[in-house]
Amino acid sequence: MTSSEIIRWGGIAAIIGGVLWVVWSNLFRVSFYAGNGPFSEGLLLLAALLTLAGLVGLHALQGANYGRIGRAGFYTAAVGLLAQALAALGLLIGSEALEVSLQWLVAPVGSLTVLVGLVLYGAATLQARVLARWCGVGLIMVPPIAFYMNSRVLYGSLALFGVLWVALGYELSSRKGTPTEQQPSRVR
């Protein structure tokens, strides 16, 4: 698979994952702590995995243009999303005792890890200057606001996180190639 295909498919995955975050957040109006059955846990599993695929697309696009902060943010967010996906899978196929023991992995551990990783990744996105500035600012600001609002103010606020991923996915899927392929050649 070429880099441009990874970017395009990552964009499509991010859009679908963002839509699933919006649906999951608004349909169930729950926090990460309250399970709502297999449909809710299946949506959470798919949303986390598709968001991870979108993150891989972002990394394929701009990975060569940022340093340690970007790699640290990418891997931290990826580990958090994988933890959430594995916990959701465990909740989906497990027993009630397993549900109680896995909920800490979905939140606060998985959520906090994703949050820290995306803030770091947003800073690296601003430094890389491959994507529009709003992408980096969105990655820095939206996850903390959405997770705070979801836990303190209004359940269902994670829809804001989903909207960010829909927008990032659109930005990725509308790309025609890698950054080096898009730059015009300089004539001397």
Description:
With about 190 residues, this protein is mostly helical. The chain has helices at about 5-30, 40-60, 70-95, 95-130, 135-155, 160-175, 180. The longest helix has about 35 residues, at about 95-130. The radius of gyration is 17 Å and the shape is globular. It starts with a helix and ends in a 6-residue tail after the last helix. Mean pLDDT is about 85; it is low at about 180-188.
Structure described in brief:
The chain has 188 residues and is mainly alpha-helical. The protein is 80% helix and 0% strand.
SSE order = HHHHHHH
Number of helix segments? 7
Structure classification? mainly alpha
Reported for the largest beta sheet, the result is: none
Architecture blueprint of SSEs:
Layout: H1 3-28, H2 38-62, H3 68-93, H4 96-128, H5 133-153, H6 159-173, H7 179-182
Helix pairs in contact: 1-2, 1-6, 2-3, 2-6, 3-4, 4-5, 5-6
Question: Which terms summarize this structure?
Answer:
about 190 residues, mainly alpha, globular, disordered C terminus
